[in-house]
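step 4 of 6: structure.
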Amino acid sequence: AQSVTQLGSHVSVSEGALVLLRCNYSSSVPPYLFWYVQYPNQGLQLLLKYTTGATLVKGINGFEAEFKKSETSFHLTKPSAHMSDAAEYFCAVSEYDYKLSFGAGTTVTVRA
Amino acid sequence: DGGITQSPKYLFRKEGQNVTLSCEQNLNHDAMYWYRQDPGQGLRLIYYSQIVNDFQKGDIAEGYSVSREKKESFPLTVTSAQKNPTAFYLCASSMNSEAFFGQGTRLTVV
């Protein structure tokens, strides 16, 4: 069975500061890992994904994440926060059947 | 444009009524999913279908039903047996490990 833990339900950062969102997972097989972003009353948009290959994954809007198998982590970072990054972020894991299991989400606020 | 269309965007249900949420995709994806979203709980899987005329229960299927008669369509019915249906419902489809989401339907019981 797979599960996802996102550390911190709310993160507040200053504009221009580093954004770091933490995600740990459990999976019985090599997982596929994802980060999604959601703006209020909208669907989810894929930021980036890890399936196989390079463990540092670059996504849209300047985000990137690193898969660390030894730590069962897939933390999301962005070097410099922008006001438009204010949203809710979800980490997700899937196994062979492609069903996604989501973390509880982290809401990011950006201070001017 | 290819994508997933959910309708309606907002839906109000009276106690004891069944309501059906629509989900249509033109991405030619085999797999489709329904998720329920509640504040602070992430997304929870209600039902999923990997092929036409076949579907499986997810983690919270009680009080819900689905059908998959066409590849493009995967409607969700919220029945009167669902005791707390007020939530945001998201439909998704997937191929090759990547899922695409609709814009959601917000259901409120009045």
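step 5 of 6: annotate
 - Chain B has a mean pLDDT of 93.
 - The interface with chain A takes residues 4, 6, 31, 33, 35, 40-45, 48, 50, 58, 88, 90, 92, 94, 97-104, 106 of chain B (CB under 8 Å).
step 6 of 6: archive
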